[in-house]
Amino acid sequence: MKILIVAPMLPQPDGPGAIPMLLHAQLQGLGRRHEVSLVTSIGDEPWEAGAAEVARASAARVYIADRRRPDTLRRRTRRRVDLASRWTFSRVPWRNLWFGPPAVQEAIHRALSESTFDVVAVEDSAMARVRLPHGLPAVLTDHEVVRARPERSGHQCGARTALGDRLLASDWRRAQVFQAAMWDRYGRVQVFTQEEAQAVARLAPEVADRVRVNPFGIAVPPGVDPALEVEDSLLFLGNFTHLPNQDAAHWLAQEIMPLVWRGRPAARLLLVGSDPPAEVRSLAGSQIEIRANVPDTGSYLESAAVCLAPVRFGGGMRVKVLTALACGKAVVTTSRGAQGFIFGRDEPPMVISDDAAGIAAGILRLLEDKQLRHSLGQRGRAVSQEHHSPEAWAARLERVYSELAAPEPSPAGVPEFAT
Description:
Layout: E1 2-6, H1 18-31, E2 35-42, H2 48-58, E3 61-66, H3 73-89, H4 94-99, H5 102-114, E4 119-123, E5 138-141, H6 154-157, H7 162-183, E6 188-191, H8 194-203, E7 211-213, E8 233-239, H9 243-263, E9 268-274, H10 278-281, E10 288-292, H11 298-303, E11 306-309, H12 319-327, E12 331-333, E13 351-352, H13 356-368, H14 370-387, H15 390-404
Parallel strand pairs: 1-2, 1-4, 2-3, 4-5, 5-6, 6-7, 8-9, 8-11, 9-10, 11-12, 12-13
Helix pairs in contact: 1-15, 9-13, 12-14
């Protein structure tokens, strides 16, 4: 097949968030058997320049829209005013405005004028508003279905101003309505978990028969050497701009770790991730360390005795859980953190609990039993290789794309686009 992927970010195997890592695996898996082109955008993050070069080497054609910060104060101010005005007077959520500038649509036009495609794969709801030619088969992968916004106290999710909280709540409500309208535009809608599929069916029953559950994959890293782990070391790895990760960090520090320290006073918690806000940084202490925006998380995974993911809300699958499993690490998480993984008939290769006491007990059990945590790590790595490698994920993607793929490739240069 000839596949055009439209994505909000550049692919990167060790990117700062989920989407770059997933895109890398997607390109890697599909590119071995199909002709894949990519439309994406570049921003101001330091890693993106290198990622752009990697992307150009991994796809047949790459079209990159520029959303970097303008070079003068006047232009930057003009863009801020333009974005704020568009958000105020439209019904479009902020992420769609930020990641879908006009330059992305221009890049799609260039791609369609230069080649033909059997199917377009639109990645993440941030790109769902792009205009595509009438009749060109398209699949939308919604990386996280927006449901009712969870109520969390300020100390759990970070303090916000009253105005900021109202704007965030308004955008959240807008996203709920917007996503349902976008789903209806696509021949298939992919989600990562059964729970997400059920949410789509509740929010938009008319598209329920078009939804496909397809758990994601990542580039499986080399297994870590168990001899490198440090006794009593606990690791939580995540993007701290994401509210569920902020909440998990507070829950760990304030409720779970005190229970762990009663039975294991030497236990130390390391919080590693991008852009931790002040409320997360304030958790640092004699037994809790924070590492922000590290260039490589590999050494932290190597030294961790146990990896933690006590997430209480949020949708989709958890890349941090899959990454730890793929490395061969023992994992303690919640039922929400374990959603989406393919275990077959086997017991999940991780400890799962939804309350602080249960999570603390699981941590203590693994810290005290080296053989158990290494056994769990081996099983988790085997599951990742079998079901969540780029090849395994690409095979599932192919089946979904084939349901829609045009019997003949779409003609290049189609001028009329769906709205």
